[in-house]
Amino acid sequence: MANQRTYGSGLVRDVDLLEVLALPEARDGLGVSRVAELSGRDKAQVSRALATLADAGLVSRDEHTRAYRPGWRLFALATHATETHLAHLAAPFLRAIVARLNETTHLCVLRASQVFTLRSELASHAFRGLGWEGVGVDPFTTSPGRVLLSEWDEETVGQWWRTFAGAAAHPLPDLPGVAEELPPLTLEALTAKLAGIRKRGYETVDEEFEPGLVGVSAPVYGFRGDIVAAVNVSAPKSRLGGRLPAAGRFTRTVADRISAALGAPR
User: Fold this and answer.
1) Distance in angstroms (rounded) separating the CA atoms of residues 233 and 151
2) Are the beta carbons of 120 and 106 closer than 8 angstroms?
3) pLDDT tens, 42-67?
4) What is the Cα–Cα distance from 191 to 33, expressed in whole angstroms?
5) What is the dihedral of CA 92, 97, 99, 102, to 10 degrees?
6) Shortest CA distance to 85 belongs to which of 223, 225, 256?
7) Which of 51, 156, 240, 258 has CB 3.0 to 4.6 Å from 152, enough for a Cys bridge?
8) d(CA 79, CA 97)
9) Is the dihedral of CA 151, 149, 204, 91 positive or negative?
10) How far apart (Å, rounded) are the C-alpha atoms in residues 213 and 201?
11) With contact defined as beta carbons under 8 Å apart, do 18 and 53 qualify?
12) With a threshold of 0.90, does the pTM exceed it?
């Protein structure tokens, strides 16, 4: 029992060091002496503890300045915890969309260069499409992807376009009778679409990502006021195509309620 208490108290002290490295002062990293001063602990103990945390990936050490910062694993754990909380909080709101529109609804986030679905709520239709949870897709020709990019400035969007667009800018290059009817997406066209999202608060796609499929998406804002996710509704064009604007406005309203639940500023 004594060993367990010793281990537990040691873990608490290590967490205290992580909190010190999260202070505004630590933005550019902190040396061992300053971490020891701020935590009120012995310098030698702090040095050993930081070395152990670095081995675990929870902190990183700059080889030149010897300053410590939060590590990659800590960011990964924080991201996972945030996304888990977001998916859980959004679930009843997604079900409200399904109840009103009777179409499958998704909660999507941006990871690296792709859009991933955190959670889906399925409609009662026999045809529900593919399960998208955990599957990454191109952001440029999807409504949630464009929503997630819509708060970026033009320079950042342009950099992304030049880095990631390529062949992915048009997802249907080899389907006769389909690709020919869809003009290729250009950076100028994408920029105009992002401006439209900022103006009306939602985005629509009409067979741009997949033949016969339409969709709408609206942004979810976090407590800092930035876009943290997108709520998406997708369905066959035969069912949803005639009511895309109404579905977009309703999805935007529900997404705003999720934002409010997250503490987003109005």
Assistant:
1) 20
2) yes
3) 999 999 999 989 888 888 888 888 89
4) 49
5) -140
6) 223
7) 156
8) 26
9) negative
10) 21
11) yes
12) no
